[in-house]
Amino acid sequence: MLGQAKRRKLWTIPTEYHCSIVGTCLSSEDVAWLCRRLKLVPTADARPYDIHRYFVEKAAEDGPEARLMHKRLDETFAVAVKRFARETTEEGWMALWAAAVASGDVAAAYWGVLSHGAMPDAVRVRAFADVHMLSHIMGGENRRQLRENRDLARRCEELTARLAKQERAAAERVAEKDARIRELEAQLATQAGRARGPGKRPTSRKPRPAGRQARRVCCAPWTPCTAASPASACAPATPRPRWSGCAACSIRRPRNSAAPPPPRRTPRPTSAGGPSSMWVGGPRACPTCGRRWRLATAACCTMTADSSRPPAAWRGWWSAPTWWSAPSTASATMPACG
């Protein structure tokens, strides 16, 4: 290929271009790679400028340093080298260079221009001038970025200090609010204690357990659960009590729990004397007249002397149905209403 045959080696390029080639086309990673391949160990006090000057001087010599640099540049910018090799006119090379500057791919295009053997001097000088000015622009840009970085660092410190101050103030306000809340709660507790009085205890807000309610005796008859709807409602494994209320005493009881104990009865008294006396103990009332029983010699309003059994309405009300068994007489003594 004609373009490849006319390419220039690095050490054949004029020396005034070597500084810009090493500085623009070789990055810091490339320089470190060259030092490893050439087994170069910079001294502890070596500056980046010293390393740059060393490779600029070696670029003018046909030695291992120049050959290795030329190989590295060809491998890195192979695409740009082929692009400039396919072009054959000055206008085409100028257009390629302008496009590279606009896109920022200056290093690859610069090596493609300077290593081309048939490149006109006008294109080579134009590329060198642009790279020279870009170095100044980049220097100024770097200085501007350094100033911005310093300003941003100072601004960051100010904002950090302000944020820490605001966090401390917020923590203090929260502590003050907590203290105020505790003070108000203590005042409310004191006022509630005064309202209850010295001998009263605070009423518990917990609901009464179902077991305690089931142990209370209700005047209504105890009815077991006979619900036919889901079996799990009254199953022993998962008890779900159905409540039954008493219209008289308003006591609620679960239907499917154990029956309450029977009411306490008055002890049965002994006979008051005489074969015809009988006694009904406890505060019981007559189902007919509603008056309390007492021991008397007169007949009750609903009984006669020759009755052998109490009326059906009275059954269950006798705590000691001791009916006299003597022969029927007119002077029989019966419990009466009084």
Automatic annotation (TrEMBL):
Residues 142-187 form a coiled coil. The keyword Coiled coil applies. It comes from the Bacteria. Residues 197-215 have a biased composition (Basic residues). Keywords: Coiled coil, Plasmid. Residues 188-215, 254-278 are annotated as: Disordered. This is Uncharacterized protein. It comes from Azospirillum baldaniorum.
